[in-house]
Amino acid sequence: MLLKELGEFGLIERIRRATPTGRGVRIGIGDDAAWLEARNHSFLITSDLLIEGIHFELKWTSFYALGYKTLAVNISDLAAMGASPAYLILSLGIPVDFKTEDVEEFYRGIRALASRSGVSLVGGDTSASRRFFISASLVGHSPYRPITRGGGKVGDDLYVTGTLGDSALGLKLLKKRGARAKEKFSYLISRHLFPSARVKAGTTLARERLAKAMIDVSDGLLQDLNHLCKASGIGAVICEEALPLSRAYRTVAGKKGPLYALTGGEDYELLFCLRRRDRNRLEKIKKRLGVPVTRIGKCVPAREGTKVINRKGEQRSISVTGYDHFRNKR
């Protein structure tokens, strides 16, 4: 079978089934981060790849922004499990014709976010490469039980932090207009180049034991919702009219409406399940999350699948659900 037929997530599932679970592994392959134990302590670790021409284009992003985003996307994985980041291991494949100043600028971007989020760069590796290749692994911890993707129940509400679709729309503008788009569409472009990892929201939801299942929206709302539903053994109904859209998004999206919010990736917002009886508890601690949260739907029996309904209660047909590295082309 070709990879383009199997798909990214089919490949991950095959790797998971073929990989034995070692000692001290509480959660292994399949969630936002691994949960490991060592003697009387536990920690979480996640990793990510960013490859030139696949995840970014140097013609429209700066090395500083790229360093910042490298760390942000890994922090977001830990936030999705209610954890705080601590230690970064960073390996780079660097073309030999890069300037020293370019690489230093990349590390300045890393340092800018690391200093604000309490992260220490503790090691890594470098190698010559034909294109810029970034491999980051981030270790974190949580004093509370990590939130997995598998705790959602039928009847739970579905919430999301922040706004959706801004990053995907920003990327579309960069592709269409290049660096010139940064002047006119600065907010949307910034949301793509400098994502916000919702650590405060994730750790607060974990501490208060409010989120029963959680995932960060990296591959698109519908794609990541499907991951959460599969892990929890449930289905979901999303109300199109409830999706939180920024003013900039509404101005630019036009006839596409909420399409980018449903299928666009790299928002790095948190999608989580909350028991209905906990609505008032969430309302009381909302200000402590550091970002607005919006109820966008509910969890239903798995046999009902995942669907989006409009204001009339009619199901909306959407052909694209999100990004898959082996099936999609950016």
Walk me through the structure.
The protein is an alpha+beta fold. α3 (63-79) packs parallel to α4, α3 runs parallel beside α8 and α5 packs across α7 (186-193). The strands form 2 sheets. It has a 7-stranded mixed β-sheet with strand order 8-10-7-11-9-12-13, sandwiched between helices. It has a 6-stranded mixed β-sheet with strand order 1-2-3-6-4-5, covered by helices on one side. It contains 12 helices and 13 strands. β2 and β3 form a beta hairpin. The chain is globular and about 55 Å long.
Distance between the termini: 23 Å
Could you give the order of the helices and strands? HHEEEHEHEEEHHHHEHEHHEHEEE
Number of strands: 13
What fraction, in percent, of the residue positions are helical? 25-40%
Q: Rough shape? A: globular
Strand content: 25-35%
Mean pLDDT across every amino acid position: 89
Radius of gyration: 19 Å
Topology:
Layout: H1 3-6, H2 8-18, E1 25-27, E2 34-38, E3 41-51, H3 63-79, E4 84-94, H4 100-117, E5 120-128, E6 133-141, E7 157-161, H5 166-177, H6 181-184, H7 186-193, H8 199-207, E8 211-216, H9 221-232, E9 234-239, H10 247-253, H11 259-263, E10 270-274, H12 279-285, E11 293-301, E12 306-309, E13 315-316
Parallel strand pairs: 4-5, 9-12
Antiparallel strand pairs: 1-2, 2-3, 3-6, 4-6, 7-10, 7-11, 8-10, 9-11, 12-13
Helix pairs in contact: 3-4, 3-8, 5-7
Report a brief summary of the structure:
The chain has 330 residues and is of the alpha+beta class. The protein has helices at 3-6, 8-18, 63-79, 100-117, 166-177, 181-184, 186-193, 199-207, 221-232, 247-253, 259-263, 279-285; strands at residues 25-27, 34-38, 41-51, 84-94, 120-128, 133-141, 157-161, 211-216, 234-239, 270-274, 293-301, 306-309, 315-316.
